[in-house]
Amino acid sequence: MKTTRRRWPSLLLGAALGLGTLVGPAAAQGKDPLIFAAASLKNALDEIAGQWQRQSGKKAVISYAASNTLIKQIEAGAPADIFISADLDWMDYGQQKNLIKPDTRVNLLGNRLVLIAPKDSTLRLNIQPGLDLAGALRGGRLAMGNVEAVPAGKYGKAALEKLGAWDGVKDKIAQTENVRAALLLVARGEAPLGLVYQTDATSDPNVKIVGTFPENTHPPIIYPIALTRESSNPDAVALLNFIRSPAARAAFERQGFTVLEPGGQRS
Question: Considering the entire predicted model, what is its pTM?
Answer without folding.
Answer: 0.86
